[in-house]
Write a structure and sequence with these properties.
heterodimer, A: alpha/beta, five-stranded antiparallel beta sheet, 15 strands, elongated, B: mainly alpha
Chain lengths: 312, 404
């Protein structure tokens, strides 16, 4: 059964197309990753799913209800964790949860019990009476997630929930989400951190410039772009653009990316072309500090599909 | 739906009262300004909140003193006694509106009463003074004296039907009956005077001073600031994405906005009532005998201020902009509206501009209540205009309001 199904979902801001006729579905019980760089259209997509903004064209059916005609029914069934921490800093965690619980229609003992439950889930019950402004970034993010869980949603939508969070808190958040999913919660997770999506998600959609450019699980995506190695050269001196022309003459080279003091080469035969590329660099006076060969990952997939990295 | 509106409003009130800076601006600053500037502006004047009246009592008997005594007991009058020789000076003071009125009790007042003859009290009043309060008080006391005198004569006549009295006894019986009747009349107001204003007079030039000016004036200004505070609160919530998150929960935009407006209204009406009670019980401002009139003006003004504050929050982009504009707009419009000084002392063109501010209508309404003792009927025009302001501003706010 599909918890989410989009039908040519489109959003224009003036003449600018932010989301361009996207079609995908999310099955019940999945953790679905929406991966893409900044400006790809991820936040616009989840904003439409959350019924915050209306699509210019197309529709999406969330938990059986249309976002166009039954937005209130949709909102009753989803929990949204926005990119920014949307909490009252001068209230305690408990006061925040009570307020947001009331917005979901909980009152009295039901509300109290539910607040206690979500505080347990995010492991912040002992800090419930502290003001939000006194929390660390990671703790704020966890309460932010707790708000999204209050209504026991069928679908939890998280929009880049770990931005600005320390690694330990990030791991904590990801573990919590995995546990929730094992209890049956369907999750839509957007991020530009491919390692999070790789760790967490069963199904991944890669988005760029408003379009879904690839869709499937990690293995399917690897097959889609072919198994390719990524050779990373770290250099002592800067690398000039004209190096690209020389290296691209090597037959097995698929794609090249140049940064200030590093060079990435995508190829099917990394070990074979390594000496040849190293010689070209040496001849051009570029001194190599280190070399690394990496197996294909989402960053590589993205680079392969779009010609740019997730960091651009 | 209503439960959620109440929850949103209650939450806003909680967030506001948890913020120390808000408490300072909402309560401490109005008290400070009202007290300091009121004290400074009342220095050198009597500082009295009462209407100044001169009495020249030339009567040789007790009834002139009785009349004088009853007038002194009126809590709204500040009675100053002058002698017959000062009559010309006092008349000039009335003409210059230094005092509201002069009451002249003639030399033979008591004799005329005792002999059951016609007697006149003369009231000198400036033609520019449209207050009817003094006439009402004089009429009331005159009627009381008159009825007591009639009662005294009636009792005397009845006694004389069966008993022959000497002059001393006549006087004794008359005085006893007179005093009994007067005691009844002054303690139980079975008959009261009502009057209709038959013609519109020029605005009276009795200008509020001291706490009479600052309590309503700065009260109105700080309530406007408090309501404009909505602009800052709503802008902050927009910046923190709280407003947009609210819209991801199963509630509609109208519920969100209604809750926010109700919350701000509650905060500012609490503020207003606090300022009024402070003025009444600490500073001795007489906020009048019609609490309903005060409440109606307070509520209608607060509603219009909330509407205007919400419009501001819709047009500004950041909370920093909102903070700066809140203070600027509140102070400037309050100055023009007559919060800082009586509007009557400003040039005509500024007075005209001032009448477009809700502050003008609120202060004008409060002045009618405080200075002239007016009630519900007289403040209806002010209330009506403020309600129209409120309706227009709240509708405009709901159309312009941005959630992101």
């Amino acid at each position: 059964m599909n918890v989410v199904e989009t039908k040519n979902l489109t959003k224009f801001y003036g003449k600018e197309c932010a989301v361009d006729k996207i079609n995908f579905s999310i099955n019940k019980g999945e953790i679905f990753g929406l991966l893409g760089p900044n400006g790809a259209g991820k936040t616009t997509t989840v904003s439409m799913f959350s019924c915050l903004i209306k699509p210019t064209d197309g529709d999406a059916i969330i938990c059986g209800y249309s976002i166009l005609s039954k937005s209130l029914d949709v909102k009753k069934r989803i929990g949204v964790v926005p990119q920014d921490v949307a909490l009252y800093p001068t209230l305690t965690a408990k006061e925040n949860l009570i307020f947001w619980g009331q917005m979901y229609g909980f009152y009295g003992k039901n509300l109290k019990n539910r607040v206690d439950e979500v505080l347990e889930i995010v492991s912040l019950k002992d800090r419930q009476n502290d003001l939000i402004k006194k929390y660390s970034g990671g703790m704020k993010r966890r309460i932010n997630i707790a708000v999204g869980l209050l209504a026991s949603p069928e679908l939890l939508i998280l929009d880049e929930p770990t931005v600005g969070v320390d690694p330990q808190s990030r791991i904590n958040i990801l573990e919590t989400l995995k546990n929730l999913n094992s209890s049956g919660l369907t999750i839509l997770y957007t991020s530009h951190y491919m390692e999070e999506v790789e760790f967490l998600c069963n199904t991944i959609a890669i988005m760029d410039l408003g379009k879904i450019i690839a869709f499937g699980n990690l293995n399917e995506l690897r097959i889609l772009v072919g198994e390719k190695d990524k050779i990373i050269f770290s250099t002592i001196n800067d690398i000039k653009e004209d190096i690209k022309i020389k290296i691209s003459k090597i037959q097995e080279v698929d794609k090249i990316n140049i940064f200030e003091k590093s060079l990435e080469v995508l190829t099917l035969q990394g070990r074979k072309i390594l000496p040849e590329v190293t010689k070209i660099l040496w001849d051009e006076g570029i001194r190599v500090k280190s070399v690394e060969i990496k197996e294909p990952d989402l960053e590589t997939l993205f680079l392969s599909l779009t010609g740019k990295t997730l960091r651009e | 739906m209503f439960k959620k509106i109440i929850s949103i409003a209650t939450n806003l009130i909680r967030v506001t009262f948890k913020d120390k800076l808000s408490i300072i601006w909402l309560f401490a600053m109005p008290i400070l300004w009202t007290t300091l500037i009121g004290a400074v502006s009342s220095f050198g004047s009597s500082g009295s909140s009462k209407i100044p009246i001169a009495i020249i009592n030339s009567d040789k008997g007790i009834y002139g003193n009785i009349y004088e005594g009853i007038m002194k007991n009126d809590k709204n009058l500040d009675i100053v006694l002058y002698s017959e020789e000062e009559i010309e000076d006092v008349v000039n003071m009335v003409k210059e509106t230094e005092i509201a009125s002069m009451i002249y009790i003639p030399e033979n007042f008591s004799d005329l009463i005792l002999n059951n003859n016609d007697v006149f009290i003369t009231v000198y009043k400036s033609s520019s003074n449209s207050s009817f309060y003094i006439e009402e008080v004089v009429k009331k006391i005159t009627n009381q004296i008159d009825i007591s005198s009639i009662t005294g004569n009636f009792v005397l006549k009845n006694i004389e039907k069966s008993v022959i009295l000497n002059d001393l006894n006549k006087k004794k019986y008359f005085e006893n009956s007179f005093n009994e009747a007067l005691k009844e009349l002054t303690s139980n107001n079975k008959v009261s005077v009502e009057y209709e204003i038959l013609s519109v007079q020029k605005e009276n030039l009795i200008l509020p001073t001291g706490f009479n000016a600052t309590s309503p004036g700065f009260g109105v200004m700080f309530v406007m600031m408090g309501a404009f505070f909505t602009a800052v609160v709503l802008a902050e919530e927009r910046e923190m994405n709280i407003l947009s998150r609210l819209l991801t929960t199963p509630i509609t935009k109208i519920v969100v906005l209604s809750g926010k407006l109700l919350g701000v209204f509650c905060v500012t009406i609490i503020q207003f009532l606090f300022i009024i009670f402070f003025g009444q019980f600490i500073l001795g401002v007489n906020w009048g005998n019609s609490p309903l009139s005060v409440l109606l003006i307070a509520i209608s003004f607060t509603l219009s201020a909330v509407g205007l504050g919400t419009i501001l929050s819709s047009v500004i982009k950041t909370s920093a902009q909102a903070s700066a504009l809140t203070i600027l707009i509140s102070i400037v419009t309050s100055m023009i509206g007559g919060a800082w000084w009586p509007i009557e002392i400003m040039p005509k063109y500024l007075q005209t501009i001032g009448k477009f501010t809700p502050q003008y209508w609120a202060i004008n309404g409060f002045n009618k209540i405080i200075l002239r003792g007016f009630g519900l009927k007289e403040i209806m025009p002010n209330f009506s205009i403020l309600i129209i302001y409120a309706i227009v501003s709240l509708i405009t706010a709901s159309l312009l309001f941005r959630y992101e």
